[in-house]
C-alpha cells in the first residue's frame, strides 16, 4: 500500500471495513490485516490510531452500540402510533439485520475484547444491552398510554424480546426470519 496518502475519516473507514468482514466472514476472519486490506489502507494506519487491535475492536463495538441512539429515537417517536407489535417487530428486525448479531459473536469470541469492554460497559453485551433498554423505554411509553397491560414490566419484556429476537436471528448463514415470524415472537412475548 502506498504511504503518505491522506485518508478521510480513518476510524469510520476501518469500522465500516470491520462491518463488512463480520457480515461476510464472521468474527474469526476479523484481523488487523483483514480490516486494513478491506479498508484499502496500510496496516500501520490502524496501529497509528489505536493502541492495538483489541483497542480498535473495543472502540468499534462501542461505536456500533452508540449508533443505536438514532434507532431508539425512531422507536420512541412511534409510541402511540401504529401497533405495538409492529413497532417492536420493526425495531428488532432493524437491530438484528444490522451488524448486531455479528458483534455479539465477536464479543463472545474474543476474551481480551470482553475484558476491555468491561472497563466502560459493566454489564451485558453492548448492542444487546442497548437494544433491551431501547425496547424497554418504548414499552414504558406504551404502558403509560394504556397500549400494553398496566402490570407489564417493560425492562423484563425488553430483555426477553432482545434474547428471543437474538435466537431467532442468530444463524447468520441461514435464511432470515420472515416478518410474520418476528411479529409472532413479539405477540407471544407481549402476551
TrEMBL record:
<keyword id="KW-0804">Transcription</keyword>
<dbReference type="InterPro" id="IPR001647">
    <property type="entry name" value="HTH_TetR"/>
</dbReference>
<protein>
    <submittedName>
        <fullName>Putative TetR-family transcriptional regulator</fullName>
    </submittedName>
</protein>
<feature type="domain" description="HTH tetR-type">
    <location>
        <begin position="8"/>
        <end position="68"/>
    </location>
</feature>
<dbReference type="Pfam" id="PF00440">
    <property type="entry name" value="TetR_N"/>
</dbReference>
<dbReference type="GO" id="GO:0000976">
    <property type="term" value="F:transcription cis-regulatory region binding"/>
</dbReference>
<feature type="DNA-binding region" description="H-T-H motif">
    <location>
        <begin position="31"/>
        <end position="50"/>
    </location>
</feature>
<dbReference type="InterPro" id="IPR009057">
    <property type="entry name" value="Homeodomain-like_sf"/>
</dbReference>
<keyword id="KW-0238">DNA-binding</keyword>
<dbReference type="InterPro" id="IPR050109">
    <property type="entry name" value="HTH-type_TetR-like_transc_reg"/>
</dbReference>
<keyword id="KW-0805">Transcription regulation</keyword>
<dbReference type="GO" id="GO:0003700">
    <property type="term" value="F:DNA-binding transcription factor activity"/>
</dbReference>
<dbReference type="InterPro" id="IPR036271">
    <property type="entry name" value="Tet_transcr_reg_TetR-rel_C_sf"/>
</dbReference>
Amino acid at each position: 500500500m502506498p504511504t503518505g496518502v491522506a485518508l478521510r475519516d480513518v476510524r469510520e473507514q476501518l469500522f465500516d471495513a470491520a462491518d463488512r468482514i463480520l457480515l461476510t466472514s464472521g468474527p474469526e476472519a476479523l484481523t488487523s490485516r483483514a480490516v486494513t486490506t478491506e479498508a484499502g489502507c496500510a496496516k500501520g494506519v490502524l496501529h497509528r490510531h489505536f493502541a492495538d487491535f483489541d483497542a480498535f475492536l473495543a472502540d468499534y463495538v462501542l461505536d456500533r452500540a452508540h449508533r443505536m441512539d438514532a434507532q431508539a429515537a425512531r422507536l420512541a417517536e412511534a409510541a402511540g402510533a401504529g401497533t405495538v407489535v409492529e413497532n417492536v417487530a420493526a425495531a428488532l428486525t432493524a437491530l438484528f439485520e444490522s451488524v448486531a448479531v455479528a458483534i455479539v459473536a465477536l464479543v463472545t469470541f474474543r476474551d481480551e475484547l470482553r475484558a476491555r469492554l468491561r472497563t466502560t460497559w459493566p454489564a451485558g453485551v453492548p448492542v444487546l444491552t442497548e437494544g433491551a433498554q431501547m425496547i424497554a423505554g418504548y414499552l414504558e411509553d406504551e404502558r403509560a398510554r394504556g397500549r400494553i397491560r398496566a402490570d407489564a414490566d417493560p425492562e423484563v419484556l425488553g430483555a426477553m424480546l432482545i434474547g428471543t429476537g437474538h435466537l431467532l436471528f442468530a444463524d447468520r448463514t441461514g435464511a432470515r426470519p420472515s416478518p410474520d415470524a418476528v411479529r409472532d415472537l413479539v405477540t407471544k412475548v407481549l402476551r
